Amino acid sequence: MAMPEVTLRGLLEAGVHFGHHTRRWNPKMAPYIFGVRNQVHILDLQQTVPLMDRALRTVRDVVAGGGRVLFVGTKKAAADYVAEAATRCGQYYVNHRWLGGMLTNWKTITGSIKRLKQMDEQLAGNTQGLTKKEILMLTREREKLDRALGGIREMGGLPDLIFVIDTIKEKLAIEEANKLGIPVIAVCDSNADPSGVAFPIPGNDDAIRAINLYCDMMAAAVFDGISAELSASGMDVGAQADLPTDVMPDDSGLPGAGAVPETLGGAEVADVPVLEGAVQSSPTSGVDRESLEQMVQNNRDDGNNAG
């Protein structure tokens, strides 16, 4: 999959340029504001386009190098889109609630993930010996852990890059990433604080269409990075597709011993490459039937002796 193309028209159609009311703004976002319309700040999309493209290329490079990307968006408008996009491209997400120490106290989080997997195995297996109340309590605990940690249960370590929607709500996640030196890509609205964000993307972080656009572009960049990683490892991406297996018929299905069909798959025999040493003319050219049958029998005897 190719890198997604960031266009001014696409951002306009998604409503990325709409900021917040003028009384709800952060002066640190002043360089990214184009103007005011109906007491609403309008973000400068001519800056958003190159900044978005830079962020997408960063995601691609990280994934191409074998890195992990963590999608973070716990607000109601973004939760479903974040989970769907991250799952679709094989990355990880947090969309319910950011637990304090989710990155800085990874050892404790690892223990909770291990507990979640144990409960999954227990509920999926034999629950004999447990009362209905015990099973209910175990199910509730499992659902609570899955909401908080289900998106990172297979991450296996700290992420190499974090993509955040709404820097105000995810302030704790950005602070933990900064403490660990993990780069942050974040959508910054007119009321956001871009401090601590390595790759800011000026844009609306409340509109559903805008959020969906961000997630789709990030997922496409991840796919492109995965393709680049497979190409660098020497693996043919096209060879991964399931191809039909050709089955050679046995001798009983042939028109005669040693006979060659006139066409192969609709193509003339003359158009098919012939192995070295093979007779390119008619199979019986210059050979009588008795000699031909003897040659076929000798070939079969040689094959049986070799087996």
UniProtKB/TrEMBL annotation:
Residues 276-307 are annotated as: Disordered. Keywords: Ribonucleoprotein, Ribosomal protein. It comes from Roseomonas populi. One of its GO terms (cellular component) is ribosome. InterPro entries: Ribosomal_uS2, Ribosomal_uS2_bac/mit/plastid, Ribosomal_uS2_CS, Ribosomal_uS2_flav_dom_sf. NCBIfam families: rpsB_bact. CDD domains: RPS2. Gene3D superfamilies: Glucose-6-phosphate isomerase like protein, domain 1 (3.40.50.10490), Helix hairpin bin (1.10.287.610). This is Small ribosomal subunit protein uS2. It comes from the Bacteria. Belongs to the universal ribosomal protein uS2 family.
